[in-house]
């Protein structure tokens, strides 16, 4: 994984893609937050997290060009993602711990900030565990040197749920008042 990640990040496209998506986030986060009724700065954090996820998952693998759409890959991808033994294997084992950690951590910032922005952890978690499914199908269809595998979905979903839990914890911690605040003074 680390060799692949180094090769991937050594290309100019990941940095340029993230920069472009970050600029879009910077320009659109405030109007989007206002429209959705979300908090402004956490919306920017969620959008930057989404930009990182898109950059790391949707660009072609190193030294691979995007082929034409391959819709025939949908069936094999669905089989890989919804196969109970493959999902169990993804939960219980991994050949490359660095890959697991990377796939888990990738989703934490996006969902953490989405919970702070929207204050709807259930919805954030529901959407966030489905986003990796869409990513895996997109990778399979793009024919860009990426594989549709259950391990990625499971690890991304674990990271998404972890980010939601951390967001809930941060929300609850920030809304607590210190003892004595808001109480009437003794008489």
Automatic annotation (TrEMBL):
Q: Known InterPro entries for this protein?
A: VanZ-like
Q: Where are the transmembrane segments?
A: 12-32, 44-61, 101-118, 125-147, 153-170
Q: Does the keyword Zinc apply?
A: no
Tell me the keywords, alphabetical order. Answer: Membrane, Transmembrane, Transmembrane helix
The record's listing under Pfam families reads: VanZ
Q: Which residues form the VanZ-like domain?
A: 98-169
Name of the featured protein: VanZ-like domain-containing protein
């Amino acid at each position: 994984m680390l060799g692949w990640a180094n090769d991937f990040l050594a290309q100019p496209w990941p940095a340029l893609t993230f920069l472009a998506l970050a600029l879009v986030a910077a320009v659109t986060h405030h109007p989007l937050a206002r429209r959705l009724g979300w908090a402004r700065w956490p919306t920017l954090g969620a959008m930057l997290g989404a930009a990182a996820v898109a950059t790391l998952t949707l660009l072609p693998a190193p030294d691979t060009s995007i082929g034409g759409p391959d819709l025939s890959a949908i069936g094999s991808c669905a089989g890989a993602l919804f196969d109970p033994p493959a999902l169990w294997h993804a939960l219980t084992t991994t050949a490359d711990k660095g890959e697991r950690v990377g796939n888990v951590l990738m989703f934490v910032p996006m969902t953490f900030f989405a919970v702070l922005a929207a204050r709807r952890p259930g919805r954030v978690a529901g959407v966030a565990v489905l986003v990796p499914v869409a990513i895996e199908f997109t990778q399979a269809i793009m024919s860009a040197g990426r594989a549709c595998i259950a391990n990625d979905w499971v690890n991304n979903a674990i990271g998404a749920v972890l980010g939601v839990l951390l967001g809930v914890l941060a929300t609850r911690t920030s809304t607590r008042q210190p003892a004595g605040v808001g109480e009437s003074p003794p008489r």
